[in-house]
Amino acid sequence: MTTSTPQPDSHCNANDVFNVQMPWEIPYFSKAEEHVPEIDPHFHFVESATRAILMGFAQNRRVYVYGPHGSGKSSHIEQVAAHLNWPCIRINLDGHITRADLIGRDMVVIRDGKQVTEFVPGMLVWAMQRPIALILDEYDAGRPDVMFVIQRVLETQGKLTLLDQNQVITPHPSFRLFATANTAGQGDASGLYVGTQALNQAQLDRWHVTTELGYMSEEAEMHLLQRKLSELPSEQVQRMVTCAGLLRQAFAQGDVTTLISLRTLISWGENSLLLNDPHEAMRLSFFNRCDEVERSLVSEIYQRCFDVELI
């Protein structure tokens, strides 16, 4: 990655770019670097989440975004970064990410034709030294030893001490830190998100901004699908969104245990175009992963919207 522009060199109005009101202008980079995400022209910014994320970029606040799967948590951060030309990378805190992956380790490398042992920084250390927005995905699924490594960095000017190297890493002025999770850090009572855990309260306290991002309203989902999948008939889009809303109500009432996300809704539309058959697309995108006991209810809801039996 090049670092020809280590600091934001321009400012923009949040209302002009994101259609949200903020009391200050937002810094941005006039030139895009290699790690800047691509802009999705059809992306829909949710005001509350966008405002929280802009606080992270403009005021260097640590932002924790949580909500159900497929609601666009990581995408919101990436798309804000894309419009600001802010380099952005994601790390998924699955069970295989270790302390050494974040901090670094001694490795054998070739220097002048000879094997030598030297310290190779991990992703966290590498990102901290650059103008990068770092997203920690699946934050509530991280291993405890990994989470404690992150805790010190959560301070606004948090420095990271590398004990093995007798070195203190000072964050780059344009380094930003975000996290996404399916829970608010209190654990998962629904049983949907296996592997998540309750987070250390001292660590949660270090996140300056916490925001919830749920699924869009029916109207917003319709507009998004119509923009993203313009070849779909408007009537079909309306029925799809209505069906998704009824399935979510059934989930909220405890009648079904599989939640249909915005991501699934988009996959359903894409598969519908590929197959020219919305009903088979529904089976492949959502119905086939529902519990067999619940499929009759899902089929009944679907029939109400499309007048077609899935079973």
TrEMBL record:
Domain Cobaltochelatase subunit CobS N-terminal: 6-36
Domain (ATPase dynein-related AAA): residue spans on this chain: 64-187
UniProt-listed SUPFAM superfamilies: P-loop containing nucleoside triphosphate hydrolases
Record-linked InterPro entries: ATPase_dyneun-rel_AAA (IPR011704), CbbQ/NirQ/NorQ/GpvN (IPR050764), CobS_N_dom (IPR025865), P-loop_NTPase (IPR027417)
Listed Gene3D superfamilies: P-loop containing nucleotide triphosphate hydrolases (3.40.50.300)
PANTHER family: MAGNESIUM-CHELATASE SUBUNIT CHLD, MOXR FAMILY PROTEIN
UniProt protein name: MoxR family ATPase
Organism from which the protein derives: Vreelandella neptunia
